[in-house]
Write a structure and sequence with these properties.
7-stranded mixed β-sheet; about 120 residues
Length: about 120
C-alpha cells in the first residue's frame, strides 16, 4: 500500500509564493518519478512538473521559471516551490508517484491565488 500525503497549500496574493510538500510511504522502489499535477474548476488535470529519483526534472512550459520541483534526500519526498503566483494558478494540486508502471495519487491540496 502506497500513500501520498500533501501539505502546504493555502491562500496567497498574486505575486506571492507557496511551497508544497508531498511524502510517500509504503512499499517504495528506489527508481520512481514523483511530481505535481493540478486541476482547476472545469478544467482537465494538467502536468505541473515531475522529478525522477535520478534527478531529472520536467516542467510544463507555463511553469518554467516560476516553479521549482525538488526531491528530498530520502527520495520519498517531493517539493514544489511556487513563486510569482498568478490567479490562474488557482487549482487543486495533486502529488503523483509513478513506480513500476503504476500511478499513485495524493488527495490534493488547494492553492488559491487572489488578485
Amino acid at each position: 500500500q502506497v500513500q501520498l500525503v500533501e501539505s502546504g497549500g493555502g491562500l496567497v496574493q498574486a505575486g506571492g509564493s507557496l511551497r508544497l510538500s508531498c511524502a510517500a510511504s509504503g512499499r517504495l522502489f528506489t527508481m520512481n518519478t514523483m511530481g505535481w499535477f493540478r486541476q482547476a474548476p472545469g478544467k482537465q488535470r494538467e502536468l505541473v512538473a515531475t522529478a525522477t529519483s535520478a534527478g531529472t526534472t520536467n516542467y510544463a512550459d507555463s511553469m518554467k521559471g516560476r516553479f521549482t520541483i525538488s526531491r528530498g534526500n530520502a527520495k520519498n519526498t517531493v517539493y514544489l516551490q511556487m513563486n510569482s503566483l498568478k490567479p490562474e494558478d488557482t487549482a487543486v494540486y495533486y502529488c503523483n508517484l509513478q513506480m513500476l508502471r503504476i500511478s499513485y495519487w495524493g488527495q490534493g491540496t488547494q492553492v488559491t491565488v487572489s488578485s
